[in-house]
Structure formats: structure tokens, C-alpha cells
Design goal:
It is built from 8 helices and 3 strands, in the order βααααββαααα. Strands 1-3-2 form a 3-stranded antiparallel sheet. By secondary structure, it is mainly alpha-helical. The chain is about 80% helix and about 5% strand.
Length: about 300
């Protein structure tokens, strides 16, 4: 389970303690509900925004690629928000599993956890690919990161899972330490890659951007990638330094909220881009009209000179 796998760093698989007070369970439920609500509202806003943008787009053979750029981010956001909701449900459902459901239930939350983090990575990598101008060299790096993440996901699903402790009459999550480190390293690699690529491709634009739209696009990608990378690096620190299971689980829920907020902030950034896009279009239209007027005047002057001669 990628939400807690850095708590197990010894040479053998270890078990994560799941004994909490009623107040702890209530706290987890409330925080999970806030995260799920963020995902639900994200789905609703994505549907509304996607329909509005598609209605404005003129669908033709020459603009299919443009329409795909509208669909892909929205689809990735839907996938992430769906798994966010599933992850929050399973997160609270596995605390009191019976023996017959222990293995299956823990596999469910582990699978949902991987889908949650992988779908977020996919969105970040696509945005990074877009800001690079769909550079083929960046695509190679993205493919490598996706394969690297997928390999650790399969390995972790195979090696980690539920374990029934008869003496305590409880179900615990048995996290293999190597797969835990590997899965988290893939997420950190994704965030670091996105941050560095965003900075490398947009550093000059950040300082000398010719339009407000360019500055918004640059700030959006750099800020989002940097925040997520910082949270994940802090997760590594707290996983090593903290011995409180409650503190660790609380952090991982806060991390999940950060992921949900960072991804769904796309709607905020779109609102920031829209006025600037309109201004740029108005400028382009004005320039085009000015050029047409100048061209017309030039032709008229040519006709006058020809008549005079």
C-alpha cells in the first residue's frame, strides 16, 4: 500500500499496526470524507468544463488533435477522482476486517492505493509532456517512468497484503519493505521529473514571457509539481523519523488531500488562463484586421499610381 509503505524499511516484510481509538477512527473518517468531497466536486466541475470547451471547439479533421488535447486532461482527471473516492472508501473499510475477508480486503485497498497514485502521476506526466511542446525526448522519459511505476505496482500487489494475527484476532497489512521503497521512489521520480522539465522548458518564459497567458501556464506547472514533490519528500522524512502509526496515517491522508487539491486546481488555473486567452485572441484579431487594412490601403495606392501613370 503506497500510502504507508515507507514505514517498513527492514530486511523482512513487516506488519502495520491498525489499533486506534474511536476518536482516531472518527478523525480518519472525517478527513477521508473531505478528500472524497474534493474528488466528487472535481468530477462535476470537469464534466461541466469539458462539455463547455467541446461545444466551443469546431470538430473537423484538421482539429482532431486539438480536441484530443481537450479530452485527455479531463479523462485523466476523471480517472484520478474516481480512484480517489474508491481509495477513501476502502481506507476506512479495512480497519475492522474479519479473517475471511482479510486478504481480499487488504488487496482491495492496496490496488486502490496504487491506482490513486498512478493516475495522479499520469496526469502530471501528461501536463509535463504538453508544456514541453510534446517533445519526443520527453516522451521517452515519461514512458520509462510509467514502466518503472507499473513494475513496482505489480511487485507490491504480489508481495504485500493482508495478514491475519490469530493471537490479536485482527487483520493487519503486511508491507514488503523493498516494494514500499520502490513504489514511493517511482512517485518521487515522477514529481522530480515533472518539476525539472517544467523549469527547463519554461525558465526563460517565466522571466521574459511575452504574454500573461504564457506566465500562467508556466506558474501552473512549476508550482503544482514543486508542491507535490515537497510533500512526498517530507513523507520520506516523517516515515523514517516518526514511530506513531496514527501520525503516519494522518500524514498520508493529508498527502492524499494535497494530491486531490493539486490535480483539481486545474479548474482554477483554467479560469486564470481563460481571460488571458481572450485577450490574446483579441490582440491577434486586431493585428489581423490591421494587416488586412494595411494590405487594402496598399492595393488602393497601387491602383491610384497605375491610373496616374
Amino acid at each position: 500500500m503506497t500510502s504507508g509503505n515507507l514505514t517498513s524499511l527492514d530486511a523482512t516484510p513487516s506488519t502495520a499496526q491498525t489499533t486506534f481509538s474511536a476518536d482516531n477512527y472518527l478523525f480518519f473518517a472525517i478527513l477521508s470524507g473531505i478528500i472524497a468531497e474534493s474528488a466528487i466536486s472535481g468530477i462535476v466541475r470537469t464534466v461541466i468544463e469539458s462539455n463547455r470547451r467541446l461545444n466551443l471547439a469546431v470538430v473537423s479533421k484538421s482539429q482532431r488533435w486539438r480536441c484530443s488535447k481537450i479530452w485527455i486532461p479531463g479523462l485523466l482527471m476523471h480517472v484520478f477522482n474516481f480512484w480517489c473516492i474508491v481509495y477513501m472508501i476502502t481506507f476506512n473499510a479495512v480497519w475492522d476486517l474479519h479473517e475471511s475477508y482479510c486478504v481480499m480486503g487488504m488487496f482491495g485497498i492496496n490496488f486502490a492505493s496504487h491506482c490513486f497514485y498512478t493516475s495522479f502521476d499520469s496526469f502530471i506526466l501528461y501536463k509535463t509532456f504538453a508544456i514541453s511542446g510534446f517533445d519526443p525526448k520527453i516522451r521517452v522519459g515519461i514512458v520509462f517512468i510509467i514502466i518503472y511505476r507499473f513494475v513496482w505496482t505489480v511487485f507490491d500487489l504480489k508481495e504485500s497484503g493482508g495478514l491475519w494475527i490469530s493471537e490479536a484476532d485482527t487483520c493487519v497489512y503486511n508491507q514488503h519493505p523493498m516494494t514500499g521503497v520502490g513504489s514511493n521512489s517511482a512517485d518521487i521520480l515522477c514529481d522530480a521529473f515533472a518539476t525539472l522539465v517544467s523549469l527547463a522548458y519554461t525558465w526563460n518564459q517565466l522571466q521574459y514571457a511575452s504574454s500573461a497567458l504564457e506566465r500562467v501556464v508556466v506558474q501552473e506547472n512549476v508550482i503544482r509539481s514543486a508542491i507535490v514533490l515537497s510533500v512526498n519528500l517530507y513523507g520520506v522524512y516523517i516515515s523514517y523519523s516518526s514511530t506513531s502509526t496514527f501520525a503516519l496515517q494522518t500524514f498520508f491522508l493529508i498527502q492524499s488531500y494535497t494530491y486531490a487539491a493539486a490535480l483539481n486546481s486545474e479548474h482554477f488555473w483554467r479560469r486564470q488562463r481563460t481571460p488571458n486567452t481572450r485577450i490574446n485572441l483579441q490582440i491577434q484579431v486586431a493585428k489581423k484586421s490591421s494587416n488586412q487594412i494595411a494590405s487594402t490601403n496598399s492595393r488602393q495606392m497601387s491602383i491610384i499610381h497605375e491610373n496616374q501613370s
